[in-house]
Amino acid sequence: MYIVMVASECAPVAKVGGLADVIYGLSRELEIRGNAVEIILPKYDCMRYDHIRDLSVSYENLQVPWFNRQVPCTVWFGHVHDRRCYFIEPHSEEHFFERGSYYGFPDEHLRFAFFSKATMEFMYKTGKRPDVIHTHDWQTALIPVLLYELYAHHGMPDQRVCHTIHNFRHQGIVGEDVLWMSGLGRPEYYAAPDRLQDDFTHAALNLTKGAITYANFVTTVSPTHAWEVCNTDQGYGLGPTLTRHADKFGGVLNGLDYDMWNPGTDVYIPHHYSADDLSGKYADKQALRGRLMLQEAYKPVIAYVGRLDTQKGVHLIRHALFYALEQGAQFVLLGASPELGINDDFWQLKHHLNENPDCHLEIGYDEELAHLIYAGADMMVVPSLYEPCGLTQMIALRYGAVPIVRAVGGLADTVFDRDYSSKPMHERNGYVFHQADFAGLESAMSRAIGLWHHHPDEFHRLIRQGMAYDYSWNHPGRDYLNIYEHIRHL
Fold it and tell me: Both 443 and 480 in a single domain?
């Protein structure tokens, strides 16, 4: 099968968040399974060009219709760690992708509308006719609209679109200028409740709603999150649209890069190990304590790695720290916040606990230290208020750090409570709580710490059961191929 991924990010060349890892990891898995995959990205001036091999011009002077003019573009080709990537570089007075940053500009909607239009022009004019075009998030949500309203009538009638929504908070709420600029026009046609009209601001258009309406299949990043966005406020207003198109909507759990995250080969940890021999993990625990100057004692190490923001349950993270210390455990935190107030709060906490031999807070992000924490920790706490998929718990399971999670989104799909899950005992792999309150968190932490102290053999069995799970791209790769096959025959 011939698949084209279109996105605003791809690791490691253009990475802001988890979207970039999905584009790279899924493309790699699809190629391993014998498919031809190409990735189309904007050519940002701030990309990691050191990760692109053999970058060269593929198509010169691509003329892209844009309102009442033609914008010339150069399309580049290169390999990003063996992924085949095209980079679209517009030559326009707007300097769409020459701004020193990936996101954060007032004309964001026009930047990515242009990218979507240029992508379609590139495929149309070069004769690229993929079986499936896989688009991602609001930045590329205009592509299915462009395909079925324009390009399907001019030589691209057989292409099918799968659209994945990674983040429902950002939907692409735009004005009708996007329609005029991209050549769609007819605002009275598109600003209809069953097309692109935003359900809250009727004078505005919603690009993500448009993708849901026009794409052949729509996914989000875990089965539980797919239910949540239809039935709770986590859909941010798109629930009715998703319900209307329920026959073509589902959740596919993201995968984890098992080459990067592998305790048997990880270059960032001093001692390697496996589920069959955990001795290296306990040596890594000593190494972690040595690096962070924690005291050597018969205590479990509980950790948090990730952003410090409202989504992640920052009040619960703080409570987990103090509860762990009260229960005679050690606590390690690695993270930073995009919100200044939260960052300041954790810096104050760091200074307050600076002399505590059982606690270390590292405000910031350090890739090497993150790997060592996963390897050295006994437990990993993930108390998110919402979590579409989540990779932290998958990495924790891979590294034998028992996850303690709140039952939302992908966390509920990957972690199964040792004491209360409906799964057979040998398939349980962590601890789960349901309410976003201190009592729920304490209950799960208390049970985990109690097992560590009083039934160490059972705790080791729980570690091995977690490490036995396969959350690589193997399963999602198969699921997406099934979706592609389904929409190819529509």
Answer: no
Amino acid type, 246: A
Distances (CA, A) of 72 to 92, 98, 131, 185: 7, 15, 27, 21
What residues make up the domain containing 26?
2-255+474-488
Distance between CA atoms of 110 and 442, rounded to whole angstroms?
Answer: 47
- Phi-psi label, residue 95: left if phi above 0, alpha if psi -120 to 50, beta otherwise: left
Torsion sign over Cα 286, 290, 296, 302:
negative
Helix axes 18-32, 474-488, angle to 10 degrees: 80
Residues 262/398, Cβ–Cβ less than 8 Å = yes
Is 438 inside a domain boundary? yes
Based on the structure, what is the number of domains in the chain?
2
Residue with tokens 């939302």: 408
| 395 & 249 share domain | no
Q: Summarize the chain as % helix, strand, coil (round to 5).
A: 40, 20, 35
Q: Answer whether residue 25 is part of any domain.
A: yes
Angle of the 456-467 helix axis to the 438-454 helix axis, nearest 10: 110
> Could you list the pLDDT tens digit for every one of the 490 residues in the chain?
999 999 999 999 999 989 999 999 999 999 999 999 999 999 999 999 999 999 999 999 999 999 999 999 999 999 999 999 999 999 999 999 999 999 999 999 999 999 999 999 999 999 999 999 999 999 999 999 999 999 999 999 999 999 999 999 999 999 999 999 999 999 999 999 999 999 999 999 999 999 999 999 999 999 999 999 999 999 999 999 999 999 999 999 999 999 999 999 999 999 999 999 999 999 999 999 999 999 999 999 999 999 999 999 999 999 999 999 999 999 999 999 988 899 999 999 999 999 999 999 999 989 999 999 999 999 999 999 999 999 999 999 999 999 999 999 999 999 999 999 999 999 999 999 999 999 999 999 999 999 999 999 999 999 999 999 999 999 999 999 999 999 999 9
